[in-house]
């Protein structure tokens, strides 16, 4: 136990020193409005020939990245449609061009909205219009998705680019050929003369359609994660998570902060993971709980420990997977952190305590003001005492994590959605007039002050690394002819992180449940991770006194046909249909025989 205390003290010292160092550079950055782009341009000066991005067989140095991003910026400028402060929507998978476009946009004082490329049709348009973007740049493999919404975009005078050399579609312009025709020279700084740390750097969608505004200041704060985790200038960082999410994106901006090399992969692949680590000499990997589990589930290999990975940074790893991962792939230091894209706090497990996301210390509490408060699952709101204030949860009791909103820890809200932004704020938490950010996450703190993630609450759930907004799924389902109302929630499935989607529905009078129709409907309108895996047909949906749909009981009952008498259906990917959920199917899903 004494050794443990020594460890904690050492980590503490490290933490305080890095915090102070960061604080000092932060002060300098604030005074001069020094952005990640400025850091990048300085890195280009100090190590122009150092590899910045490795992608497939290609290597791009810092200098080459600078030139390519200037070219991208010039193409966008020449369209004549962009002015400083404008936003451009980007829709592409992980590829170097993603980074060139973002850097290029900041060079001309603009920002980017990162569209999730799995989203289609109505949802895509909805996401696009969440920001004020009047320009869309999309990858060539997304041509069909673009064409589907093109009439509507053109009607709204949106300029649409496809990342190709030639393009025959009316109303769509090619981008790459134009890039090769413009100058790679640096762009004048006056093009971004109004840029401050309060200006938007990106818009990142936190669930289907809510876009969190990430200012340049916030981006700095998030980009220190690698620094805090002990990444040094010789490291090579492997990124295979989508760049349109904050976790993926800040691994690139964090790499710029550290001046290191990023090995970028278009999509996570279990079979290629360690091959890539060996090929690119990767020393730091990034994870979510799912990817670590997938890696542990592969057959053992003789060269499992043949790699140079020393550090893993991410979130959501289960305690059993953590142990298994270390047993199998060697003593890789796992730095588990907790942070919401739109949130205003970051927790980090410095101590290597298996399963925890951080530790509540006196100092961390002083540096950022957060609390875990008692939460009423049925009413979906915090519990309040007789004077109307919230109550801190007991040791070991899961409660809602809230974080105080102050000038130093601001909450920038969602683009064009005041109502959603307001919903994330809690007022009068511990005293009259205070304001906290509601993370929507349940955490618990144990007797040794270690903090553990428990669950998501409220109207989103997490599945396969994506946040799914229940109301958006319900809106889609109720468009199906036979469905009257839908109540969507997430249910736990043994062996999986997060929750998978389930919908309790009622049918329109005189209608039978048309499974093919519903399947086609969700397949057309929802990305795979958001499609409800289970459907429960009810005569009526239970509501609370305030006409909110009741979820807690449904969530608790899950999808077990042994317990539920309502008709249940299962989304069968092979049959491309919803099929009756039999006890056999239930057993196969919970034992992992059927992969979902
Ligand atoms: C990886 O390291 C080896 C040995 O140090 C070196 O020969 C090789 O070029 C490196 N590969 C990359 C992609 O940097
Ligand atoms: C179910 O929906 C499909 C597709 O919309 C339709 O073709 C079919 O006739 C419907 N079946 C019944 C029994 O209504």
Automatic annotation (TrEMBL):
<dbReference type="Pfam" id="PF13193">
    <property type="entry name" value="AMP-binding_C"/>
</dbReference>
<dbReference type="GO" id="GO:0000166">
    <property type="term" value="F:nucleotide binding"/>
</dbReference>
<dbReference type="GO" id="GO:0005789">
    <property type="term" value="C:endoplasmic reticulum membrane"/>
</dbReference>
<comment type="similarity">
    <text>Belongs to the ATP-dependent AMP-binding enzyme family.</text>
</comment>
<feature type="domain" description="AMP-binding enzyme C-terminal">
    <location>
        <begin position="473"/>
        <end position="547"/>
    </location>
</feature>
<feature type="transmembrane region" description="Helical">
    <location>
        <begin position="98"/>
        <end position="117"/>
    </location>
</feature>
<dbReference type="InterPro" id="IPR042099">
    <property type="entry name" value="ANL_N_sf"/>
</dbReference>
<keyword id="KW-0472">Membrane</keyword>
<dbReference type="GO" id="GO:0005886">
    <property type="term" value="C:plasma membrane"/>
</dbReference>
<keyword id="KW-0812">Transmembrane</keyword>
<dbReference type="InterPro" id="IPR045851">
    <property type="entry name" value="AMP-bd_C_sf"/>
</dbReference>
<keyword id="KW-1133">Transmembrane helix</keyword>
<keyword id="KW-0547">Nucleotide-binding</keyword>
<dbReference type="GO" id="GO:0044539">
    <property type="term" value="P:long-chain fatty acid import into cell"/>
</dbReference>
<feature type="domain" description="AMP-dependent synthetase/ligase">
    <location>
        <begin position="42"/>
        <end position="349"/>
    </location>
</feature>
<keyword id="KW-0813">Transport</keyword>
<dbReference type="GO" id="GO:0005324">
    <property type="term" value="F:long-chain fatty acid transmembrane transporter activity"/>
</dbReference>
<dbReference type="InterPro" id="IPR000873">
    <property type="entry name" value="AMP-dep_synth/lig_dom"/>
</dbReference>
<dbReference type="GO" id="GO:0004467">
    <property type="term" value="F:long-chain fatty acid-CoA ligase activity"/>
</dbReference>
<keyword id="KW-0436">Ligase</keyword>
<keyword id="KW-0445">Lipid transport</keyword>
<keyword id="KW-0443">Lipid metabolism</keyword>
<keyword id="KW-0276">Fatty acid metabolism</keyword>
<dbReference type="InterPro" id="IPR025110">
    <property type="entry name" value="AMP-bd_C"/>
</dbReference>
<keyword id="KW-1003">Cell membrane</keyword>
<protein>
    <recommendedName>
        <fullName>long-chain-fatty-acid--CoA ligase</fullName>
        <ecNumber>6.2.1.3</ecNumber>
    </recommendedName>
</protein>
<dbReference type="Pfam" id="PF00501">
    <property type="entry name" value="AMP-binding"/>
</dbReference>
<feature type="transmembrane region" description="Helical">
    <location>
        <begin position="6"/>
        <end position="22"/>
    </location>
</feature>
């Amino acid at each position: 136990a004494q050794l443990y205390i020594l460890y904690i003290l050492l980590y503490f010292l490290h933490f305080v020193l890095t915090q102070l160092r960061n604080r000092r550079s932060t002060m300098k950055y604030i005074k001069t409005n020094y952005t990640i782009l400025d850091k990048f341009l300085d890195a280009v000066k100090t190590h122009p020939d150092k590899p910045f991005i490795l992608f497939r067989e290609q290597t791009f140095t810092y200098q080459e990245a600078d030139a390519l991003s200037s070219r991208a910026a010039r193409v966008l400028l020449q369209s004549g449609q962009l002015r400083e402060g404008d936003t451009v929507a980007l829709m592409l998978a992980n590829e170097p061009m993603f980074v060139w476009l973002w850097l290029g946009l900041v060079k001309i004082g603009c920002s980017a909205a990162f569209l999730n490329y799995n989203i289609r049709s109505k949802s895509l348009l909805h996401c696009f219009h969440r920001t004020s973007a009047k320009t869309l740049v999309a990858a060539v493999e997304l041509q069909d998705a673009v064409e589907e919404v093109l009439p509507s975009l053109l009607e709204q005078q949106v300029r649409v680019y496809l990342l190709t050399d030639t393009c025959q579609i009316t109303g769509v312009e090619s981008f790459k050929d134009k890039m090769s025709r413009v100058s790679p020279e640096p762009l004048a700084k006056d093009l971004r003369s109004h840029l401050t740390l309060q200006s938007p750097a990106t818009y990142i969608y936190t669930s289907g359609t809510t876009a969190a505004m990430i200012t340049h200041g916030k981006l700095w704060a998030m980009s220190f994660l690698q620094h805090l985790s002990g990444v040094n200038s010789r490291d090579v960082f492997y990124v295979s998570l989508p760049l349109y999410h904050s976790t993926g994106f800040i691994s690139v901006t964090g790499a710029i902060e550290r001046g290191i090399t990023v090995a970028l992969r278009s999509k996570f692949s279990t079979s290629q993971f360690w091959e890539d680590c060996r090929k690119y000499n990767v020393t730091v990997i990034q994870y979510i709980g799912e990817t670590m589990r997938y890696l542990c589930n592969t057959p053992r290999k003789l060269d499992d420990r043949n790699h140079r990975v020393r550090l893993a940074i991410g979130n959501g790893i289960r305690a059993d997977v953590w142990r298994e991962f270390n047993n199998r792939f060697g003593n890789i230091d796992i730095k588990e952190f907790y942070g919401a894209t739109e949130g205003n706090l970051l927790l980090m497990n410095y101590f290597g305590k298996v399963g925890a996301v951080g530790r509540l210390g006196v100092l961390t509490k002083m540096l950022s003001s957060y609390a875990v408060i008692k939460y009423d699952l049925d009413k979906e709101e915090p519990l309040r005492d007789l004077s109307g204030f919230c109550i801190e949860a007991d040791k070991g009791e899961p409660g809602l994590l809230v974080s105080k909103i102050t000038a130093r820890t601001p909450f920038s809200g969602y683009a064009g959605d005041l109502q959603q932004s307001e919903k994330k704020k809690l007022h009068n938490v511990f005293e009259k007039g205070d304001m906290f950010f509601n993370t929507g996450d349940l955490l618990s703190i144990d007797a040794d002050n270690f903090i553990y993630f428990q669950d998501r609450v409220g109207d989103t759930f997490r599945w396969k690394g994506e946040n799914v907004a229940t109301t958006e799924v319900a809106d889609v389902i109720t468009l199906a002819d036979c469905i009257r109302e839908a109540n969507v929630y997430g249910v736990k499935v043994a062996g999986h992180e997060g929750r998978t989607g389930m919908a309790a529905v009622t049918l329109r009078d005189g209608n039978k449940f048309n499974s093919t129709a519903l399947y086609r409907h969700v397949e057309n309108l929802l990305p795979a991770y958001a499609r409800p895996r289970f459907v429960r047909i009810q005569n009526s949906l239970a509501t609370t006194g305030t006409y909110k749909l009741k979820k807690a009981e449904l969530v608790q009952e899950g999808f077990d046909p042994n317990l539920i008498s309502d008709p249940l259906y299962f989304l069968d990917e092979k049959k491309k249909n919803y099929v009756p959920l039999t006890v056999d199917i239930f057993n196969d899903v919970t034992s992992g025989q059927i992969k979902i």
